Amino acid sequence: MRSLIKNKKAQFGLNVHGSPIWNIYLFMIIAMIVILLFAGWIYITSLLNNIFTQVGIQNEANAAGSTLYVNMTQASEQTFGKMNDAIQSLRMVGMVYILAMIAVILISNAFVKIHPMWFFPYVLIAGLGVIFAVPISNTYLELIQSNVFEGELTNSGWAAANFIMFNLPMFVMFLGMVGGIMLLINLIRQDSNPNLEQ
Hints:
- There is one protein chain.
- This protein is mainly α.
- The chain has one domain.
- The protein has helices spanning 2-6, 22-63, 72-87, 90-111, 119-145, 159-166, 168-192.
- Helix 2 (22-63) runs antiparallel to helix 3, helix 4 (90-111) packs parallel to helix 7 and helix 5 packs antiparallel against helix 7 (168-192).
């Protein structure tokens, strides 16, 4: 056992470089944070854009023709309006980020070598990840139903992200199973070719 600790062949992903099991938990947490952060950002910029446009319209109604008149609607369209248009792409950025995390989990499980004694704990912790995904998915559903960000999350741009979050336990189970199969394949390759352990 001491030689396993000394040459780090028995590490269970507690180091930063290769931790296949904890990637599933990071996926669940970061997917929720990314969606809420980006949706909140989109909501805030559209709210600011609407407020500045309304202030400009009120200013035009009250001060039109005066020497102190400033066209605030045009200023709002050229600043917050352009930012609001550009920031709508965060929906796609969030979805690409989530899909990239799924790809990273599968690729890292395909190339990370763990000691055979850690395969059974991997299965247990992946199963706990499925159980942990249920409250996250339910919380996300409650956020959607409570109309947070005035319905920004029900926008059609979040449809794919909503599908993943509503079915998060199934996605986590899929990632755990496919990742476990890839780890098992690596274990079999290590047994058949001992030179791969380096």
